[in-house]
Amino acid sequence: MANVPSPLPGPMAGIETNVSVNMLSRMPGIHGKNSLHFRGKNILEFLMEYEHAAKHANLTNKKKCQELRIYFMKKEKCILDVLEGYINENWQELRKELMSLYTSSEEKKTYRPKDMQQFSTMKRKITRLLHFDNYQRKFKVIMVDLEKHRALSEYDCNNYFWSGIQPTSL
What we know:
The protein is built from eight helices and no strands. The protein is mostly helical. The chain is elongated and about 60 Å long.
């Protein structure tokens, strides 16, 4: 006869247990420096972090809807009460509704050629590889956006890159 666990006695009777769930995987707390909060901006980033945490906590889609409210700031909670996805505990619908309501608040920096000029003329000393790596990353962020909008030629891009690296005085 197979060794089958017996149901939990007393007040725990009727509660389903999932033995494969890692008990250390929990949703992030609502207090603390690195806590998860939605303040009305950057919905995509918030949802990505929330879904990541929910996946590791093994939350069902229904539970994701139920738990979402505690991560919303007070002034944003009222919107949840009127969303069909929240009322019906349908995560996919709720996610779509939130994206449609808050996508315009996504902060996306659009760069202009003037931004590249200012960046490349900034005074900086590159004495270590770390300094160069930081410069190169910041340069690439601006450059990719300008290239996407065809606002910078390849020649100008190269020129700005090299003019931004100023020799250090010895």
